[in-house]
């Protein structure tokens, strides 16, 4: 915008001569309107006035600046005018490119975290499974309780609530008979995950606790074996030394 203003001012001062017009009262104004609706759709239009009179317009659909008055071209020769328009075309396309680049850097995307919990029991022998999804941005998100690839129609989706840090929170619940909870999973789809859905299995945490316990036990056994083996070997060595 600053560049456009400067160039137009320069151009018009050239055309009309700066001597007659005190610069601080120079009544030339121009307006640039640029819209960036999404990554595909952008347009830039321009308008210019000298005092109350609109002198030029520049549509996004055109490569040329439209002169609205017979004198809008000032004392420019056609060649000079064409050169000026070329400068503006370069300005327009680099302005558009730079803003798009900037917008890309601003496009924020935060991955959701998900965890499961048990809700208040809805009745004897029944469970409420709760899938919490939090910390995601932007807002659109897909959360369903699943059995294998089968979406569970009983999934109750809560409202999407704001977190304090401008991210979003959502919970999805499912009521099931206690015996049917095994094998259910919560699946989360979000733009930030780029197709790598989050899948959490009900009871998965128990399995992993069991696995950790098993791993710790295995480690302990290995250590024990190492100590026993080492002591045994050391004893044998010292006895050989005794013989020698
Ligand atoms: C942009 O254009 C591509 C292909 O022309 C289309 O698939 C995509 O949906 C468009 N994006 C938006 C945000 O409109
Ligand atoms: C605006 O002009 C640019 C460059 O000529 C073009 O790519 C774009 O599609 C135009 N926008 C609209 C909305 O027509």
Automatic annotation (TrEMBL):
It is a single-pass type I membrane protein. It holds the Pfam family MHC_I_3. Residues 1-19 form the signal peptide. It is found in: Cell membrane; Endosome membrane; Lysosome membrane. The chain crosses the membrane at residues 199-232. One of its GO terms (molecular function) is endogenous lipid antigen binding. The keyword Repressor does not apply. Its main location: membrane. One of its GO terms (cellular component) is endosome membrane. Residues 112-199 form the Ig-like domain. Keywords: Cell membrane, Endosome, Glycoprotein, Immunity, Immunoglobulin domain, Innate immunity, Lysosome, Membrane, Signal, Transmembrane, Transmembrane helix. The keyword Mitochondrion does not apply. GO terms for biological process: antigen processing and presentation, endogenous lipid antigen via MHC class Ib; antigen processing and presentation, exogenous lipid antigen via MHC class Ib; innate immune response; positive regulation of T cell mediated cytotoxicity. Gene3D superfamilies: Immunoglobulins, MHC class I-like antigen recognition-like. Antigen-presenting protein that binds self and non-self glycolipids and presents them to T-cell receptors on natural killer T-cells. This is Ig-like domain-containing protein. It comes from Papio anubis. The lineage of its organism: Eukaryota, Metazoa, Chordata, Craniata, Vertebrata.
């Amino acid at each position: 915008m600053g560049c456009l203003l400067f160039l137009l001012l320069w151009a018009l001062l050239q055309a009309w001569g700066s001597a007659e017009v005190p610069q601080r009262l120079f009544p030339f104004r121009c307006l640039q309107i640029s819209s960036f609706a999404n990554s595909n759709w952008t347009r830039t239009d321009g308008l210019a006035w000298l005092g109350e009179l609109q002198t030029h317009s520049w549509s996004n659909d055109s490569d040329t600046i439209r002169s609205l008055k017979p004198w809008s071209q000032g004392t420019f020769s056609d060649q000079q005018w064409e050169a000026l328009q070329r400068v503006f075309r370069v300005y327009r396309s680099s302005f558009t490119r730079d803003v798009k680049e900037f917008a890309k850097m601003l496009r924020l995307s935060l991955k959701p975290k998900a965890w499961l919990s048990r809700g208040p029991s809805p009745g004897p022998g029944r469970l409420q499974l709760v899938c919490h999804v939090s910390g995601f941005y932007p807002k659109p998100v897909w959360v369903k309780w699943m059995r294998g690839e089968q979406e569970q129609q009983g999934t109750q989706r809560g409202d999407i609530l704001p977190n304090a840090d401008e991210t979003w929170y959502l919970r999805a619940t499912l009521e099931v008979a206690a015996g049917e909870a095994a094998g259910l999973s919560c699946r989360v789809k979000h733009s930030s995950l780029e197709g790598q859905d989050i899948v959490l299995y009900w009871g998965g945490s128990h399995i992993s606790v069991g696995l950790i316990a098993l791993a710790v036990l295995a480690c302990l056994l290995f250590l024990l074996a190492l100590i026993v083996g080492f002591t045994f070997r050391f004893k044998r060595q010292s006895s050989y030394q005794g013989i020698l």
